[in-house]
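Sequence, please.
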């Protein structure tokens, strides 16, 4: 597919899952990773839902300021567990401890997205899914960590649902694309409205 009327879309994210989602949906885009200090936005007590949207907006704006004519899609994801914000695990040992703590419990993933043009955010939104982790064995956890390795450190929940991580769960309530890191249906609707893809 091609964009309509020569409109260009830039994805301001290095996420392979987000690139795959847009590619599979037939959306043409370029990638330009945003230079955003995410830790500066993660202030104490920040609401994880609001943070997902704020990070997406910051990424979209960071790239849009340098390419005013393009539409820029920023996206990010946060995780809520027992009322707190969970960040990416720095080590595999930290990932093990996190997954152990989440065993048999639920947590929420919030995927935020924002569309910017000419240095202004023109749309932003967020979607949430409920992730129900099963009561997996220590042996499964060991095998899972060994199989997935350091790649888990790039994932906010230390899992990839599109891989072996699917076996960590007993149920997911919400949209699959949101789990992968992008509220795809609202994003596609906004890209049609903006004239980036055909309506």
């Amino acid at each position: 597919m091609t964009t309509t009327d020569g409109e260009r879309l830039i994805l301001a994210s290095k996420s392979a899952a987000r690139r795959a989602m847009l590619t599979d949906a037939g959306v043409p885009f370029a990638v330009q990773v945003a230079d955003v200090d995410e830790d500066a936005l993660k202030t104490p007590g920040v609401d994880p839902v609001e943070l997902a949207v704020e990070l997406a907006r910051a990424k979209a704006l960071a790239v849009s300021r340098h390419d005013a004519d393009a539409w820029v899609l920023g996206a990010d994801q946060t995780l809520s567990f027992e009322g707190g914000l969970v960040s990416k695990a720095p080590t595999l040992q930290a990932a093990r401890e996190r997954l152990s703590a989440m065993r048999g419990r639920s947590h929420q993933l919030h995927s935020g997205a924002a569309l910017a043009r000419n240095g202004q955010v023109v749309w932003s939104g967020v979607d949430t899914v409920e992730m129900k982790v099963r009561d997996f064995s220590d042996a499964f956890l060991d095998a899972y960590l060994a199989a997935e390795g350091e790649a888990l450190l790039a994932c906010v929940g230390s899992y990839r649902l599109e891989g072996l991580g699917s076996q960590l769960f007993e149920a997911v309530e919400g949209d699959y694309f949101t789990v992968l890191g992008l509220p795809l249906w609202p994003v596609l609707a906004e890209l049609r409205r903006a004239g980036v893809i055909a309506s």
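Residues 9-194 form a domain with the Maf protein fold (CATH 3.90.950.10).
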